[in-house]
Specification:
Blueprint: H1 2-21, E1 37-41, E2 47-49, E3 53-58, E4 68-71, E5 74-75, E6 78-83, E7 86-92, E8 100-109, E9 115-125
Parallel strand pairs: 2-9
Antiparallel strand pairs: 1-3, 3-7, 4-5, 4-8, 6-7, 8-9
Length: about 130
């Protein structure tokens, strides 16, 4: 009988300590505030000419030095300007892209180090 009581207490103690290990730790973690991207120009799925210019805006939490833009895996040179509500970013589609669909891909980090990405699709014609 004592062995059964001992085993019951032992099993309950093991389970209760395992459950305590899964306590809420969310209060000790910082929320990740990713950079946001808006005002894509030309808009998603627009038909554009080769070497057209594009632009978008980023949130104020974006680290401007971390902004990278590529189109069909080709890096694009960009211009970044500070505006009231963040940064205005502009660039030009690569000359090699003609008669194809291409995604303008954006990658950046926020000032707190959180990574964000976005983009939009364009149809490039001659």
């Amino acid at each position: 009988m004592n062995t059964i009581k001992f085993m019951t207490v032992f099993i309950l103690a093991v389970f209760s300590s395992n459950l305590l290990a899964y306590g809420s730790s969310s209060s000790s973690k910082k929320a990740c505030n990713k950079p946001k991207f808006t005002q894509f120009t030309p808009p998603h799925m627009a038909v554009v000419a080769a070497q057209s210019e594009f632009s978008f805006q980023t949130s104020t939490s974006t680290n401007p030095d971390s902004i990278e833009v590529s189109v069909k895996k080709q890096p694009v040179e960009i211009t970044i300007n500070k505006v009231n509500n963040g940064y205005s970013v502009s660039g030009k589609l690569p000359a090699s892209l003609q008669d194809t669909f291409a995604r303008v891909e954006i990658d950046a980090k926020a000032t707190n180090g959180c990574k964000g990405s976005d983009g939009w699709l364009l149809k490039i014609e001659d």
